[in-house]
Amino acid sequence: MARAGLTAERLTEAGAELADEVGFEHVTVSALARRFDVKVASLYSHLKGSHDLRTRIALLALDELADRVADALAGRAGRDALAAFAHAYRDYAREHPGRYTAARLRLDPEAAARSAGVKHAQMTRAILRGYDLTEPEETHAVRLLGSVFHGYISLEASGGFEHTAVPAEESWAWALDRLDALLRHRPTP
After folding, report:
1. Which domain holds residue 46?
2. What's the rounded Cα separation, in Å, for the pair 13 and 61?
3. Which of 2, 7, 66, 98 would staple 24 via disulfide (CB 3.0–4.6 Å)?
4. Count of beta carbons in the 10 Å neighbourhood of residue 15
5. Does 37 fall in a domain?
């Protein structure tokens, strides 16, 4: 019998909070059961297992991040949109490190199809419309932006920029300026 008050949604939210506290890699049904002071078996009426829980957290994180990015992009274009997009990702990663990691979980095709991942790709392409790219340049640019943003955020989160006198914030602004310049003034093939 399901414990009163426990739902898949409540467990997902608690799992996301746990991910932010201890790291996404440590989120399991067992850890969640300890958080609610219940037996693991009582959670299986709401969750199929740790993979299901982790997938639900990833979907939640993708939704939250998509909403945040959409709000940041409203009414912006060009470098301003590029920076707003990048800052939204970086701020989310700082505020919700476990959820940010979850948002990068490789999803099976069915879960990916119902995720906000498609919205993320659409928003990235919307930013690039201001740079008048054609295919395959636009696809290359989507991959470049993702690589730079996610790479920078990951390196910063792991302490990779703590051993230099140049502030990470300065390098972040420099990178955004260079990306904008590259996209605006790219050489013709």
Report:
1. 8-184
2. 10
3. 98
4. 27
5. yes
Residue 58 lies in a domain: yes
Q: Is 2 left (phi over 0), alpha (psi -120 to 50) or beta?
A: beta
Residue 68 is which amino acid?
R
Does residue 3 belong to any structural domain of this protein?
no
How many whole angstroms separate alpha carbon 77 and alpha carbon 129?
9
Please give the DSSP secondary-structure letter assigned to residue 134. -
The total of structural domains in the chain comes to: 1
pLDDT tens series, the chain, 189 aa:
445 589 999 999 999 999 999 999 999 999 999 999 999 988 888 999 999 999 999 999 999 999 999 999 999 999 999 999 999 999 999 999 999 999 999 999 999 999 999 999 999 999 999 899 999 999 999 999 999 999 999 999 999 999 999 999 999 999 999 999 999 987 666
pTM for the predicted model, two decimal places: 0.91
CATH number at residue 151: 1.10.357.10
Does 156 reside within a domain? Answer: yes
